[in-house]
What does this fold into?
Amino acid sequence: MKLRLALLSALAAAFCIAQAADKPKTDSKTMSKPEIVKSENDWQKLLTPEQFQVTRMRGTERPNGAAYEEFEKQGEGTYYCVCCGAELFTSNEKFHSGCGWPSFYDSSKAKGVLEKVDNTHGMKRIETVCKRCDAHLGHVFEGEGYKTPTDRRFCINGVALKFVPKGGAAPKLLEVSSTAVQSKKDEVAKEGGVEVKK
It folds into this structure.
């Protein structure tokens, strides 16, 4: 009887562990809230349908598409988030992996890329998102044998990136908009004698 009870307990524990493995996990890195928060409707007004599908709905562009072909032709420069303008990667970390999506061996020194555990679709991966607005960028893979300084491959959707050639002006950062920020702006405007329209 005790053996049967012990086996049932072990089986129940194994089942619970298997169920937990399919749920997305969070860690202290993923708990931080993005600075930029907008409704789906607001994002749709700012982005193309493909950009919206990839960055806001966690989609994936097709490999070897137009965005990838354009990426392959780009020279020195910096890659920014198409949603909010945060710096993500530079051409210094860019390399040709042959996977059909833009590849980088590291994020830029600006550290605008956040890595999150992603256990969706029965796989264990690390999702990469924009730290500032939580835009889905792609995934990062390790230990694939690429001869790069990190042996990591940030596999990124090209439509999630805005390229600015070296010497070009960085895109304007999307402003933080929230009720608290707007209230503070209204307060400052009133103090300055400006009528606030509602």
